[in-house]
Amino acid sequence: MRGPYRRALVKLSGEALMGGHSFGIDAATVENLARQISRAVDRGIQVAVVVGGGNFWRGATVAETGMDRATADYAGMLATIMNGLALQDALEKVGAVVRMQTALPIAQVAEPYIRRRAIRHLEKGRVVIFAAGTGNPYMTTDTAAALRAIEVDAEALLMAKNGVDGVYDADPRLDPHATRFEHLTHIDAIKLRLTIMDTTALSLCMENHLPIVVFDVAAPDAIFNALKGESVGTVVSSAPDPLPAS
Fold first, then answer.
1. pLDDT (tens digit, 9 = 90+) per residue, 137-146?
2. How far apart are CA 83 and CA 53, in angstroms?
3. CB 142 within 8 A of CB 205
4. Using CA atoms, how far apart are residues 166 and 229, in angstroms rounded to an integer?
5. In this structure, which of 58, 87, 132, 171 has its CB flanked by the most CB atoms within 10 Å?
6. Is 7-237 a domain of CATH 3.40.1160.10?
């Protein structure tokens, strides 16, 4: 255990909001995630969140059916805004103060992304949700998470995976002999072509020495424990050894 983070960014996939459903949002699941984040904020941890949209729309997949890729990606950004609004509502219902910022202007429901304003919100103990990815097609929400974490000076990027409790040398759902890493470096992850996140996002983290913690969002209190700096999942960092204890 390294101790609680001062400021961290949590990446939530759209699938993490589905619960046991195959599509959309499960209210009980979102409430559970919101309670964990709120508990961390109550402990003085500054929390930012990037949400994906895969529970509603996947631009790259839709583009394979013939839709223009840029158009499909913009539709995916709208899906992340829907998820961001659901998470914002759940957080407010458990007592958290929240601000959502979007990379696409949508003034009726969210602030535009402004880095200095986002940092100020975090300093005041508000949860900041970043939606609409980077605002650019061909860029994943993993890349958006890496970029926003670096921009707001987060100490770590916490990758909340759906049903996978870390980084493995093979897909554990297909290979029963797959081995989980406790720690590895960014460059090792790139060389081994491990599916932590897309290469652009992983390279951004490596170049800016941003640690990544990969863990299973469905584990009990997973996000809360990750924000507290407990040993969960796999740590990916620039150092050859895991993060030191604080």
1. 999 999 999 9
2. 7
3. no
4. 15
5. 132
6. yes
